[in-house]
Design brief:
InterPro entries: CGRF1 (IPR042496), Znf_RING (IPR001841), Znf_RING/FYVE/PHD (IPR013083)
Oligomer: single chain
Mean pLDDT: 75
CATH class of the largest domain: Mainly Beta
Keywords: Cell cycle, Endoplasmic reticulum, Growth arrest, Membrane, Metal-binding, Nucleus, Transmembrane, Transmembrane helix, Zinc, Zinc-finger
Largest sheet: 6 strands, antiparallel
Strand content: 15-25%
Helix content: 10-25%
GO biological process, one term: regulation of cell cycle
Shape: elongated
CATH architecture of the largest domain: Sandwich
Subcellular location: Endoplasmic reticulum; Nucleus
Number of helices: 7
Function: Able to inhibit growth in several cell lines.
Number of domains: 3
Length: about 325
């Protein structure tokens, strides 16, 4: 009976021809798109097909110690009342704070460090700015010193704001540098430069860190920013709101955020794990829901899969970005 019905439909209904041709077109198009690497619905894929037959290259990481950490202290902040800063250093350091530093002067100093003039002492950095700032304060920070420093402009300066937007001056630039010559030979990171917004009469955005850079003894400059995001972070990442556009782009590393423990890994030296990841490595892989997450995908920086699943994916399971390479989340010998 069914055969008679199909034969009748085949002979008298043009819809049958249209349906067959449409089905053949959809299947053929899906096969062609899948052949060239485009995403196709899972139902149209072969049961034995894997998304990627080429294993994801693994990036090698080298741990580098960053002796500096700087964060905003508690309490209100303003140009007239000042701001509190708290530093955490592994070695004795000098904290130099420049109020109203010209944007172009700071960029010129950072470029000078990259092009031969090594800024390894507070005096070098101050000379590189060519006195293009309103006021400078300096503090000596001990290795066990956790005290908050109160930074403020003298009343006789008569400064209540730094002009309308877009501004030519950063409200505050804080520079941490090693105080002892022996320590400069011990660490690859020789300085931390932090640009801070302080609210004033013209721009009342709350106090916050705008940019933070690390200077190395080899003359490199890196921007400090988060290395990777966990699957629970919702994919939100990016620098804080800023009143100025960032300086010309430099080769950037991915590193631990402001106020984190002073350990850093770059590209070839990138941050291994943040402290909460070390405490929470039992999070389940988003794919198999069985093994612990121990792979970070690059360049999207999502930490969401295990060693077994990473080889089966060409795209990140979280954001669908192409996976170029990955690295393993493993504890270093000192953290076992």
């Amino acid at each position: 009976m069914a055969a008679v019905f199909l034969v009748t439909l085949y002979e008298y209904s043009p819809l049958f021809y249209i349906s067959v041709v449409s089905l053949c077109f959809v299947v053929t198009a899906a096969m062609v798109l899948g052949w060239f690497g485009f995403d196709v619905p899972v139902i149209l894929r072969s049961s034995d097909e894997t998304e990627s037959t080429v294993p994801t290259p693994e990036k090698q990481m080298v741990q580098v110690t960053n002796p500096f950490a700087l964060e905003l202290g508690s309490g209100p902040a303003s140009v007239t009342d000042g701001v509190l800063l708290r530093s955490c250093c592994l070695e004795p350091c000098v904290l130099s704070c420049f109020w109203g530093c010209e944007v172009s002067a700071l960029q010129g100093a950072l470029q000078a460090h990259q092009h031969g003039l090594r800024l390894s002492t507070p005096q070098h950095f101050q000379e590189a700015l060519h006195l293009r700032y309103h006021y400078c304060q300096s503090f000596h920070i001990g290795s066990e010193d956790r005290e908050e420093r109160h930074l403020h402009l003298p009343v006789d300066q008569g400064i209540t704001d730094f002009g309308p937007l877009p501004r030519q001056h950063y409200p505050l630039v804080a520079v941490l540098m090693l105080a002892e010559p022996e320590a400069r030979d011990k660490y690859n990171i020789v300085a931390s430069v932090t640009v801070i917004h302080v609210p004033d009469d013209k721009y009342r955005l709350s106090a916050r860190v705008l940019f933070q850079y690390l200077l190395t003894s080899q003359g490199s400059m890196y921007e400090l920013k988060p290395l990777f995001m966990s699957a629970d972070s919702g994919g939100m990442s990016g620098p804080p709101d800023s009143e100025q556009s960032s300086p010309p782009s430099e080769p950037t590393i991915e590193a631990s955020g402001v106020g984190q423990r002073p350990v850093l890994l770059e590209e070839g030296k990138e941050e291994e794990e943040e402290e909460d990841w070390l405490e929470g490595t039992n999070k389940d892989c988003v794919v198999c829901q069985n093994a612990a997450v121990n792979r970070v995908l690059l360049p999207c920086r999502h930490a969401c899969v295990c060693d077994s699943c990473v080889s089966h994916f060409q795209h990140c399971p979280i954001c669908r970005a192409f996976v170029i390479e990955s690295f393993s989340l493993t504890r270093g010998p000192a953290e076992q």
